Amino acid sequence: MNRSDLFFTVSLFLHLTAFGQSRSLAKTRDSIHNSVAAILRQDTSGGTFIGASGVLIHPRVILTAGHVNFSNFKQLPGGCSTKGWVSFSDKAYSGVERYAFDYAHGIESYPDTAAFAKSFGDTTGQAGPSHFIDIGLIFLDEPVRGHPVMQLPDTSFLKDNVGDSSLLGAGYGYHTRMDSTFTFSSIDGLRRTWTPRMSLYNDKWLFAQCDPISNLPYLCIADSGSPLLFRNKMVVGVWSFEGYGKAPCPYSSWAVRLDNPDALSWIKATIQRRLGNK
To answer: HEC profile for 41-89?
Structure first.
């Protein structure tokens, strides 16, 4: 499986389920979390679409899901440009508050996305996705001004706080669950928040039950990389992909544990290597 296949495989996990119609999720409009950004790509016609979400953790660094990393492509899927942007507006398609980066050189992931993709094809159970951490860092061309930088959690922070009711997600995915007619144009560019029911899966992943209103997962592809926030201040997870859930919920949602010491060490070391004291 190459990176292009992975991108569309994750999309299928998140979108192409056999529902006859879309249903509303328990998401609300958000104009508060100004560290959360939409990650935009350019299509072959020169237009833009939202492919993921992320959060500002350094004036020049966006934390997101690792599977947005296309850095090893000689040419991006569909002939897309390598030019990308992040938008901090709660209306990401408005064209304001955008900062540029390069998909070819401006993203690093942990682990390398090829290893993450390979884990999906493992039949032994020894290299399943739960054994990997799907974290990405986007390095912006210019520092962000006028937006707060989100603080990373302490090691093992979630062990004591995962059940707190103030844990919430913030991202740019749609507010309805779409059927197999899904297109990226269905994402309206509005930032939303939601409060999932979380539990710890292992030292690398959190597990979320379905939205109690719709019995559907909270996520779509544009929610990949959305932070989980603790009392609106602390980053405690990055959404990534879905696995199978128990009926009536057809899928379950997952989030990376950023309080994992390996994850924290990689994030800090990568920023230091790329930016030093900048």
So the answer is: EECCCCCEEEEEEEEEEECCEEEEEHHHCCCCCCCCHHHCCCEEEEECC
Radius of gyration over alpha carbons of the chain, in Å?
17
| Ranges 194-208, 209-223, 253-267: which has the least confidence | 209-223
Q: What is the DSSP string of 222-262?
A: GGTTPEEEETTTEEEEEEEEEEE--TT-SEEEEEEETTSHH
pTM for the predicted model, two decimal places: 0.83
State whether the Cα torsion 150-152-157-158 is positive or negative: positive
Cα(274)–Cα(278) distance, rounded to whole angstroms? Answer: 9
Q: Using alpha carbons only, give the angle 156, 229, 115 rounded to the nearest 5 degrees.
A: 65
Average pLDDT, the chain: 78
Residue 90 DSSP label: S
How far apart are the C-alpha atoms of 119 and 146, rounded to whole Å? 40
The larger pLDDT score, comparing residue 149 to residue 244, is at 149
